């Protein structure tokens, strides 16, 4: 087994393909027709709403209210984007989202990987209990910890900064990270670590030079899973951002609704497009790993 | 792992006990650290609704204009919270005794009443007396505040009267008179339907535009103390005379007077129907004037819009000069953060807010307009006159409800309009959550 | 060897930070919240001890029953549809599209990573009836069916929520199950084919039994996620019409933060936690039994 296969339990499919059968050209096209139709329908289902979202971002309020929904925008201006960016303060919100997500992600991964190693590779009494305690965190609804946390952050004077978000995201990310990392370490044959320690390596050296490289791919995938969880969070961001200049992009998306319920459709769509297509670019760059990461943890 | 898993069950109990002890310790510690308020504020902090920009803009305007000296001594600092999270935020801040100097009072009047009974809210009535600016709040706003909260604990940064706006042109084209009674309104609706116009544009999806009709109908049939009786437990919403009001609203829906799909019409759509001439009438508060006075949004022209109070119901105990009024989302103030500098700010706000807001935001407030504003749009002038002429105001359906009943009423309002919920069931649901 | 792998100092350093953060920010607040279940009130009005009144009220509150029924119905229907659609897609990837499946997998997966608020707004507009027919009603109109007011009746609103979540998640489950399908040894399939099994028969007798463990774990994973649904319903219907699409999580949030009843809110959370606990224990056990074999 290669180290990649060890680290990411989801096997890449390239090695299990049957040999391709050849058939005459005409028959091949005819045979491919249902395939093309099915794929076509599937892609339209997924892609058309996004296309429509993009079109919506160029429409005026008047077009939203008084023109058919499938109509293309009458003019192609970036007014909605300018409106979304300035009035909607999206620049600040994107910055806040990054400032909250990056440290939380880093801490979750560092703490989670170390804890996963300690819980799975090292031998001590009580590690089952600790692992179960972490697992308990996966099943508790997030709403439950809001009030006590608010009190804690307030008493400790953390309110009014991004720290409550960073700390909460780190903690909420930990159960899944620890659990998934423990799973990955479990799939590494124990003999590797035992051999290393027999050779006289210290435990930290074993962790750094043997354990860490073995699960490097896994760490990357877990990080991506956590990234999307944190980036898309609404509940925690809504509760702990007391100042508008601390708001994250998800909370910011709520900003385009007025006091009596009036909605500025154009800027809302533009803001969503900025969010969605920003995510899309990131996703397309990283998509293979995202898919492996999101699913690998669930399988085990 | 398998060995570890076996150990799990044996080990859970002591661990839980340990953590539980830690919690108690932590709770105990946090209890002693109470009372973070009390120290003099370093900023004139204002927690605003993210959705309401008018008050923010007016305060910011004042800070560079009339209140520049106060700004020097105690700079204004605005934070915002989306409407969806404001009640939660106030509860959390109030629980810490750390309310900002000024704050939007929340979606339900209950929140600030709770804060008040905890002694956290400044008594604005007596403070205004002490500062010698008692005349800065207009009497109508004072009475609305007292009806709503029992005493003067908020600043009326808006004063809205509510009623039915109608399209004069459509009415004239179809020979319809502005309705004076409920029966007139039903007749007008029939004529409008015959003319292919939606009679009463209503944002059923939002719920409250439906229950506003219900509240008004109750006030017209049972008199201005009808909802206070419910709040005091002397009457129940399930009493036949109250259910009859719900029935009247449901009948409008059943007759198609709200137009098709009322349950999916949101605020923006309802306004749009009216200002595009697709609806003959529209029940709304006077905050809508900013839309009516904007030619880009208002396609029928402000001169074509008329205003009538909610019509009288024949044989009812209420009268149509009892205008429904509200004070928007008013501002409360922290009692512990009040000091001389805040008092200076308050004096300046009392003296100038009304004028500034009317001049620059077009918003009618409950503050006295100390400097007359020239060139007011005629429709705004009409409404201000109507408000001034009203001898008595009434509240809205949920005004005296707790948060739970308010939410139940507003989330089920659309079902009442669409007929998915019977009037009796609707009233029973709300009554059940009133808890008295 | 065990001296090094069992070094307490090292364990403390490696595990300490994670355990400390987790305990302070998750475990303590959870237990703290559980403490609220025997109190009534909120931080403004103060708390009064009411014993087990809140827990008893759970059993008589019709809205808890309504929310519980909705939560279970939602979790069941969505789990079935997510897994069935995901499984069909994954079968298609493996046995039909084969090498060409990469792009399709990528695109069908994409909705998974979109922000919930954005997806909810998208679906609100898609199923809209006023001011303009949304895409769905427009399509219905072109085939002669009158527009449907999707969000005004509990049943249709329920199905819009389901459709949205299936749209969002089928790509995820497809990839999840795909990972299980490609693990089926090609020799097993080949020998079954030689025995004359093909098409549906092959799927029925070879593929499904062999992918059962991963199928089972997807089902459990899905149930655990759907029981805790919050964001998507909050953003799409806000629990309406009325309270017909309110899950336990949303009712709990409203009870605590809108109605200011923290004690009762925590009691609802406890009920939900117990529900999830049952499922999670199921996960824990089945993952021990079936999935660590590989």
What does this molecule look like?
- The complex is a heterotrimer of chains A (300), B (436) and C (294).
- Chain A is mainly α and 300 residues long.
- Chain A has 14 helices and no strands.
- In chain A, helix 4 packs across helix 14, helix 9 packs antiparallel against helix 10 and helix 11 runs antiparallel to helix 14.
- The longest helix of chain A has 35 residues.
- With 436 residues, chain B is an alpha/beta fold.
- Chain B folds into 2 domains: 170 residues, 3-Layer(aba) Sandwich (D-Maltodextrin-Binding Protein, domain 2); 200 residues, D-Maltodextrin-Binding Protein, domain 2.
- Chain B contains 18 helices and 11 strands.
- In chain B, the strands form 2 sheets. In chain B, strands 5, 6, 7, 8, 9 and 11 form a 6-stranded mixed sheet that branches.
- In chain B, helix 2 packs across helix 15 and helix 10 packs across helix 12.
- The radius of gyration of chain B is 25 Å and the shape is globular.
- Chain C has one domain: MetI-like fold, CATH 1.10.3720.10.
- Chain C is 73% helix and 3% strand.
- Chain C is globular and about 75 Å long.
- Chains A and C meet through helix 2, helix 3, helix 5, helix 6 and helix 7 of A and helix 1, helix 2, helix 4, helix 5 and helix 6 of C.
Task: Offer a quick outline of the entry.
Chain A has helices at residues 3-7, 25-56, 61-66, 79-86, 90-120, 127-139, 146-155, 163-186, 190-198, 203-214, 216-231, 235-240, 249-252, 265-299.
Characteristics:
A: mainly alpha, MetI-like fold, 2 domains, 14 helices, about 0% strand, disordered N terminus, C: about 290 residues, mainly alpha, two-stranded antiparallel sheet, 2 strands, globular, disordered C terminus
Provide the low-confidence segments of chain B as ranges.
1-38
The protein's oligomeric status is: heterotrimer
Radius of gyration of chain C: 24 Å
Order of H and E elements of chain C:
HHEEHHHHHHHHHHHH
CATH class of the largest domain in chain B: Alpha Beta
Mean pLDDT of chain C: 83
The rounded distance between the terminal residues' Cα atoms of chain B is: 57 Å
Greatest contact between two chains = A-C, 107 and 102 residues
| Record field, number of beta strands of chain B | 11
**CATH class label of chain C:** Mainly Alpha
Sequence of secondary-structure elements of chain B: HEHHEHEHHHEEHHEHHHHEHEEEHHEHH
Report the portion of residues of chain C in β strands: under 5%
Estimate the helix proportion of chain C, in percent.
over 70%
Domain unit count of chain B: 2
Percent in helix of chain B: 40-55%
């Amino acid at each position: 087994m290669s180290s990649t296969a060890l680290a990411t339990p989801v096997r890449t499919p390239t090695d299990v393909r049957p040999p391709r059968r050849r058939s005459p050209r005409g028959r091949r096209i005819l045979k491919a027709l249902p395939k093309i139709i099915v794929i076509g329908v599937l892609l339209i289902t997924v892609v058309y709403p996004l296309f429509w979202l993009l079109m919506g971002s160029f429409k005026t309020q008047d077009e939203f209210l008084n023109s058919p929904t499938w109509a293309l925008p009458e003019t192609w201006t970036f007014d909605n984007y300018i409106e979304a960016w300035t009035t909607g303060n999206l620049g600040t919100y994107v910055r806040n989202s990054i400032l909250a997500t990056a440290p939380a992600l880093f801490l979750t991964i560092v703490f989670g990987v170390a804890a996963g190693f300690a819980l799975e590779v090292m031998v001590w009494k009580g590690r089952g209990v600790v692992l179960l305690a972490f697992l308990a965190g996966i099943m508790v609804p997030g709403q439950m910890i809001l009030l006590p946390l608010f009190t804690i952050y307030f008493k400790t004077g953390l309110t009014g900064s991004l720290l409550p978000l960073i700390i909460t995201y780190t903690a909420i990310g930990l159960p899944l990270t620890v659990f998934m990392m423990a799973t990955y370490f479990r799939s590494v044959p124990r003999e590797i670590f035992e051999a290393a320690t027999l050779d006289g390596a210290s435990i930290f050296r074993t962790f750094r030079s043997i354990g860490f490289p073995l699960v490097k791919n896994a760490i990357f995938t877990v990080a991506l899973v956590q990234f999307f969880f944190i980036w898309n969070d609404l509940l925690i961001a809504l509760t702990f951002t007391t100042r508008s200049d601390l708001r994250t992009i998800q909370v910011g998306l709520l900003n385009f609704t007025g006091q009596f319920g009036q909605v500025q459709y154009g800027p809302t769509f533009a803001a969503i497009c900025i969010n969605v297509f920003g995510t899309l670019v990131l996703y397309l760059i990283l998509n293979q790993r995202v898919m492996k990461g999101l699913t690998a943890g669930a399988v085990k | 792992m398998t060995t570890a898993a076996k150990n799990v069950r044996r080990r859970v109990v002591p661990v839980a006990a340990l953590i539980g002890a830690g919690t108690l310790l932590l709770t105990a510690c946090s209890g002693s650290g109470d009372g973070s308020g009390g120290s003099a504020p370093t900023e004139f902090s204002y927690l605003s609704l993210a959705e309401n920009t008018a008050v923010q803009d007016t305060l910011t305007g004042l800070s560079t204009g009339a209140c520049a000296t106060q700004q020097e001594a105690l700079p204004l600092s605005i934070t915002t919270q989306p409407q969806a999270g404001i009640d939660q935020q106030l509860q959390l801040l109030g629980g810490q005794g750390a309310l900002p100097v000024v704050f939007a009072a929340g979606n339900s009047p209950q929140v600030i009443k709770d804060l008040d009974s905890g002694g956290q809210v400044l008594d604005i009535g007596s403070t205004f007396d002490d500062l010698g600016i008692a005349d800065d709040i207009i009497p109508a706003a004072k009475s609305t505040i007292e009806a709503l909260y029992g005493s003067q604990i908020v600043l009326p940064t808006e004063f809205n009267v509510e009623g039915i706006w109608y399209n004069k042109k459509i009415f004239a084209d179809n020979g319809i008179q502005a309705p004076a009674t409920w029966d007139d309104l039903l007749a007008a609706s029939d004529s409008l339907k015959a003319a292919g116009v939606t009679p009463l544009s209503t944002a059923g999806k939002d719920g409250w535009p439906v229950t506003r009709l219900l509240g008004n109908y109750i006030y017209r049939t049972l008199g201005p103390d009808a909802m206070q009786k419910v709040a005091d437990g002397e009457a129940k919403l399930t009493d036949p005379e109250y259910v009859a009001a719900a029935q009247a609203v449901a009948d409008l829906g059943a007759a198609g007077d709200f137009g098709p799909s009322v349950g999916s019409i949101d605020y923006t759509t309802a306004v749009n129907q009216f200002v595009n001439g697709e609806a003959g009438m529209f029940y709304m508060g006077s905050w809508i004037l900013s839309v009516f006075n904007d030619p880009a949004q208002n396609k029928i022209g402000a001169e074509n819009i008329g205003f009538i109070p909610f019509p009288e119901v024949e044989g009812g105990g209420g009268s149509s000069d009892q205008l429904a009024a509200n004070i928007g989302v008013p501002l409360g103030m922290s009692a512990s953060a009040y000091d001389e500098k805040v008092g200076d700010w308050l004096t300046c706000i009392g003296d100038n807010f009304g004028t500034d807001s009317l001049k620059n935001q077009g918003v009618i407030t409950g503050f006295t307009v100390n400097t007359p504003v020239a060139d007011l749009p005629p429709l705004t002038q009409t409404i201000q006159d109507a408000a001034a002429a009203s001898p008595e105001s009434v509240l809205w359906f949920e005004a005296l409800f707790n948060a739970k009943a308010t939410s139940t009423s507003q989330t089920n309002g659309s079902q009442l309009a669409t007929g998915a919920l019977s009037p009796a069931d609707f009233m029973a649901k709300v009554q059940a959550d009133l808890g008295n | 060897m065990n001296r090094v792998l069992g070094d307490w100092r090292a364990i403390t350093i490696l595990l300490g930070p994670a355990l400390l953060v987790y305990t302070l920010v998750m475990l303590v607040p959870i237990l703290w919240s559980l403490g609220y279940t025997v109190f009534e009130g909120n931080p403004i009005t103060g708390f009064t001890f009411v014993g087990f009144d809140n827990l008893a009220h759970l059993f008589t509150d019709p809205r808890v029953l309504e929310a519980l029924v909705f939560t279970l119905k939602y979790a069941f229907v969505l789990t079935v549809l997510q897994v069935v659609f995901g499984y069909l897609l994954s079968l298609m990837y493996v046995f039909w599209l084969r090498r060409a499946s990469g792009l399709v997998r990528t695109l069908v997966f994409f909705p998974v990573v979109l922000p919930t608020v954005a997806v909810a707004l998208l679906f609100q507009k898609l199923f809209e009836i006023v001011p303009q027919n949304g895409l769905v009603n427009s399509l219905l109109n072109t085939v002669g069916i009158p527009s449907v007011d999707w969000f005004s009746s509990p049943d249709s609103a329920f199905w819009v929520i389901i459709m949205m979540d299936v749209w969002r998640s089928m790509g995820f489950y497809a990839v999840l199950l795909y990972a299980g399908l490609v693990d089926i040894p090609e020799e097993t399939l080949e020998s079954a084919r030689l025995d004359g099994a093909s098409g549906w028969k092959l799927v029925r007798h070879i593929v499904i039994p062999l992918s059962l463990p991963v199928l089972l774990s997807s089902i459990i994973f899905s149930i655990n996620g759907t029981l805790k649904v919050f964001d998507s319903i909050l953003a799409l219907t806000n629990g309406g019409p009325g309270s017909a699409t309110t899950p336990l999580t949303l009712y709990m949030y409203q009870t605590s933060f809108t109605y200011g009843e923290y004690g009762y809110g925590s009691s609802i959370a406890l009920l939900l936690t117990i529900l999830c606990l049952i499922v999670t224990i199921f996960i824990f056990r089945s993952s021990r039994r079936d999935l660590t074999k590989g």
